[in-house]
Every structure is written in structure tokens, then in C-alpha cells.
Amino acid sequence: MEFAALVLDIEGTVCPISFVKETLFPYFVAKVPSIVQSSETQSDTIKDLLSQFNITDKDALSAHILGLVAADKKDPILKQLQGYVWAEGYSSGEIKAPVYPDAIDMIKRHPNVYIYSSGSVNAQKLLFGHVAGSDGSSIDINPEIKGYFDINTSGAKIDASSYSSILKDIGMADHPEQVLFLSDNPRELDAAKQVGIVTGLAIRPGNAPVPNESDYVTYTDYAKL
Ligand SMILES: [Mg+2]
Record-annotated residues binding Mg(2+) (predicted)? Predict the structure, then answer.
């Protein structure tokens, strides 16, 4: 095994960058009107979240929520509502995470896999708990993952200090050269490299082109990891 531990980004690295924009967000937008209209029959959590917007007229409430989404507002109530609606979508099987098959294999094969994503740890666990299997079922690969990090646990992904903190947490502070961080974002890779972590640039369909790609070790698949 070339690396003692793997630290993986999610979007653009182990699943298509379009998943959030083209699946999760439209799923939420499509659900909002019916959730608001039938708010009386929703779970207490949803009722409580909706009431926190302080808008009694249902059409106005729907429009307000959709407006926040359209404007990409980082509203904490909206974020909680989205997380809850997505959780229900995952558990009902309506949403499955399109993790690349070779990424699933790598995660299963390597004994020490960690995730570092700007999406919350909760959202990460939901995603890996409902991965689209090759037969159309949804599979839980969380048991294959040793730990999860996000911007709350570890700091921003473009800060070198975040990677020092992760190295410490995974017991690799003295051996950063045995840790591989995979991401589609060169700025994240540069930050990890500053603390001695080995980096790999994920080149997957739909990722933004990286102008100085030749400065990085690139991976178009993970068969060798
Ligand atoms: Mg990414």
C-alpha cells in the first residue's frame, strides 16, 4: 500500500460536481411548495423550521424559501430545512449519491479512508449512506470510512492549518508524506502540500479545467490507489 491514509474531497473527486447543483438543489426546490401547502401533516421538525420564517401565508412562505434558494442565501433555517428534506429523500430512496464506481472500490479497498468536504459531516454521512449501487439499489459505505472532516471540525479547505489539524486527528502528524489528499481544487491541494501531504488532482468529467494541471499528479480514475 503506497499510502497509509487517504483523505478525499467529495464533489468533483468521488462524485460528479453536478450532483449538488443538478440533483440536490432541484429536489429541494420541487418539494418546497408541497411541504409548505401540507405543513400541518409534516413532521414536528419541519413544522418548527417553517414557523421560524414567521410568514403565515403559504404562497408567500413558499415564494420566500424559493427566493432564498435562488439567491444562494446561507440562511441557517433554510440550511436546516434543506438538510432535513434531503435526509428524507435519501431514506425514501428518491435520492441516491452517484459516487463513482472506482471511488467506491477504492474506499472499500483502502483500510484508512477519511473524508474532508465543505459540506457538513452530517451531509457527508447521508451521502455515503445512500450511494447508488450498480443494480439501482442504494448502498451504505459509511462502515468503510474511518473519519469525516468539514469546515467546522477542521477549518477552510484552502488553509494549510486545516490539514495540520486533520493530520493530528488521524494520527499522522509525524508522517504527512504517507497521506494522500485527493481533490479537484488546486488551491486545496496547494494548502495540503504546505504541510507535507502528498496531493493528487482529480480529473473527472464535468470538472473545471485546471490551467496548470501539469504541476500536479493527476488521477482520472482510482484503480491504482
Ligand atoms: Mg471538490
Answer: 9, 11, 184
